[in-house]
């Protein structure tokens, strides 16, 4: 993991100011997304009383969100495309000095942009996941009953732990798929239909196995999260301070918590897959 972190920082240092600006805009967008359900709930209660303060706040935040997202979309592709170009050219010059064949070179070059892509999308996705879980739990703690909050924490821990073996299977299959892909050009060049048929079947078998693991992860996650949502709704409609806005906010925050907890498994798979990719790029004997 230390080597993975060092490689991520190595790429980050190619454009630290620009990447930090993009991350700052990502932060603004994430904060607006996680507080949106609370503000919408307050808007509903305000509007029912013919008040418009929270509506004005919501409109203002949507304008900020639109400006930030637009600027972000304009900047991030320009920044990361330059980094990907530098990384690809540098790695191509490096691997051409080795005895790697064209098939291996092609496969490894397709992996070079994984770290820039991780910086562009996954770093803040992981941060947003943590932030979203914390804000959702904070809301449930203050606005819901204590047993709903406790149940939410328990389920948030049980889901990633119980699905970890399937996450590991998926990561292992990704590693196998990358090793098989490194022979693609050589197999195509052989012009042997039987060899190519076997190659494609191996790739498809891996995809099937991953699909099976993803299905198990989904059903475990979906079942537990549905139970949490039902309990949360029942706890709100039976409370003395029930309001329409509180119900909407609670349902939205439970849905948000469920979505972010589901992302935990994907983030773990992404990190483990990236770790393997980084080591693969450095080890040509892999």
Nearest-integer average pLDDT: 87
Give me the Rg, rounded.
Answer: 23 Å
- Count of separate DSSP helical elements: 9
Termini gap: 18 Å
Strand content: under 5%
> Strand-and-helix sequence, N→C?
HHHHHHHHH
- Helix content percent band: over 70%
How does the major sheet shape up?
none
Count the strands? 0
Shape verdict: globular
Derived structural class: mainly alpha
Low-confidence stretches: none
Using brief descriptors, characterize the structure shown.
9 helices; globular; 286 residues; single chain; mainly alpha
Can you describe what's shown?
The protein has helices spanning 2-12, 16-48, 53-95, 102-109, 114-143, 146-181, 184-190, 193-237, 244-282. By secondary structure, the protein is mostly helical. The chain is globular, with a radius of gyration of 23 Å.
């Amino acid at each position: 993991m230390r080597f993975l972190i060092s490689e991520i920082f190595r790429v980050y240092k190619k454009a630290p100011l620009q990447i930090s600006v993009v991350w700052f805009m990502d932060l603004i967008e994430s904060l607006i997304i996680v507080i949106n359900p609370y503000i919408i709930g307050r808007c509903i209660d305000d509007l029912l009383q013919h008040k418009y303060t929270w509506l004005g706040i919501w409109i203002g935040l949507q304008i900020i969100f639109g400006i930030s997202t637009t600027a972000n979309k304009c900047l991030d592709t320009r920044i990361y495309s330059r980094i990907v170009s530098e990384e690809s050219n540098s790695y191509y010059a490096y691997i051409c000095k080795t005895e790697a064949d064209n098939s291996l070179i092609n496969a490894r070059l397709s992996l070079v942009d994984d770290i820039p892509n991780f910086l562009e999308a996954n770093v803040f996705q992981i941060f947003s996941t943590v932030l979203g879980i914390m804000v959702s739990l904070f809301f449930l703690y203050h606005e819901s009953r204590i047993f709903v909050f406790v149940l939410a924490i328990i389920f948030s821990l049980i889901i990633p732990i119980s699905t970890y073996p399937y996450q590991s299977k998926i990561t292992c299959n990704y590693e196998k798929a990358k090793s098989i892909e490194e022979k693609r050009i050589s197999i195509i060049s052989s012009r042997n239909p039987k060899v190519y048929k076997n190659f494609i079947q191996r790739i498809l078998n891996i995809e099937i196995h991953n699909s099976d693991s993803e299905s198990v992860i989904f059903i475990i996650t979906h079942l537990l999260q549905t139970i949490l949502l039902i309990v949360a709704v029942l706890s709100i409609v039976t409370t003395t301070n029930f309001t329409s806005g509180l119900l909407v906010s609670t349902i939205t925050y439970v849905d948000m918590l469920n979505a972010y907890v589901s992302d935990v498994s994907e983030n773990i798979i992404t990190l483990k897959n990236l770790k393997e990719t980084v080591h693969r790029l450095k080890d040509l004997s892999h």
